[in-house]
Amino acid sequence: MMDTFFRSLIFFLIFFCSLLDICKSEHEKKNADYNDVGDEGGIEIAGDELNNNSNITVCTRRQNSIMHEIQTATPIQFPFVVALMSQRNEYVCSGSIVSNGIILTAAHCTPTVSYALVNATSDKKDETVIQLHVIKTENFPTYTGGDSPKNVGILFTEKHNNTIASKIRLSNVTDSKNLNEMEALGFGLNAEVGQSKTLQFIGIEKRSRSGDLIQGFFDCIDTKIPTCFRDAGGPVIFDNELIGVITKGQNECTKEITSSYAINKHVVDVLPIYTFKAWLDEQIVKSQEQAKEPLEVYPSKPIFREAVHVMTSTGNVFSFCSSAFAVFQILFISLSFY
């Protein structure tokens, strides 16, 4: 009888060790997948290898440091950008998380926003998207609507922990002299009516100013991607910091540009951060008194915790491992009575 017991024990030990290897490998794969997604911090430079490939059409410029072409963002690439939605589940504008419970956007967007989609790469809900409800809104004190120059506002949402999103750091730039090329982000920049609005970004150049506003231009000599900016409220970033809010886009798309001529196109109006930063800092300080915990600062990603899982195929493997371990314990106890 003892021989039977020891043979059974050895069998289950071998089985259990194999099971541990499976669980460990799946766990490592899950962590690797999470950390690898969206490592592209921003707009990529068109390298020689890309330009020499005749099968790839990209926007090429004679002297460019960032890509002047609309590109689609990957999941968690910009974990501070949110899609602002109405009570009727319709897309309104883009926004940026600047503190726990505070979203920055254009003032004209705030009246109809009901909630924000966080971790979203489109204006559609799915199992990976977090929904934050708007508690109240506040616009810049001098904003009066219409063509008011300080077209900026904030949305106060429910507080959340640092596994949900990161925040964008506010730039301390005090003028636009050193701001040349920037990244502008938004949803559905060149989407047609009825199409899903995906998170996109494009390189822009500061060419001129109109009062407080910076005018951002698209500068390209070869692209087949329709180019326009059908969004507002989103961030403009430089060196991983927020330097402004997009107050107005450009709805008319340029369908195709060939290398036979160059084009300079005004695509966005940007209200720079230094025109409203003192007011925004004051709102953030007031809000931080009730904050749950500080958020990671972009380009850092939200903190991953093992206790937070989305049930995917990997999650099912973890459930199987736990269940199998419980069965093993029961069988071991039963065999010990022989």
From TrEMBL:
Gene Ontology biological process terms, A to Z: proteolysis
Family matches, as Pfam families: Trypsin (PF00089)
Ranges of residues in domain Peptidase S1: 45-285
Cleaved signal peptide residues: 1-25
Keywords carried by this UniProt record: Disulfide bond, Hydrolase, Membrane, Protease, Serine protease, Signal, Transmembrane, Transmembrane helix
A GO term for molecular function: serine-type endopeptidase activity
TM region positions: 317-337
SMART domains from the UniProt entry: Tryp_SPc (SM00020)
Descriptive protein name: Peptidase S1 domain-containing protein
Organism from which the protein derives: Leptosia nina
Lineage of the species this protein comes from: Eukaryota, Metazoa, Ecdysozoa, Arthropoda, Hexapoda
